[in-house]
Amino acid sequence: MAPAIRAFSFQGGNVSRLERISLPQLTLHSTNTRRAPSTASVRPIPIRERTDLTLPRYEIVKTKFECRREDAERAVEALKKEFTTERVDTQDGIRIDWDNAWVHARPSNTEPIMRIIAEAPDKATAEQRISRVRDVVDRALGRA
To answer: pTM of the full predicted structure?
Structure first.
């Protein structure tokens, strides 16, 4: 027997929704009712027909360039100053978060390079974020 995932939500003590996904076939059964459904009232819905089950699509773009470790530290400081209105994490280089995208810039531990990775809903946005970060880095290192 295939394992199943069952999700129930309750309102006022009544079952308002039951979903069952059987794995590995991924057959979805769903019903909305005020009382617990009998198996006869559950109608199979193929996954491909469920538009509410789509996952967001994101693009990742990566780049790297020559950069000594001490220069990378200056670059991270410049990025912190430039992106003060964004969410910033400096645990490993710098990660800058926007609502729909992020960029991570960090020096390599084994090579004299800096890596910049971006994720966004589309490739153009990811490349634009990398370009903006790279411009700040180049200015900070006197390359612009």
So the answer is: 0.63
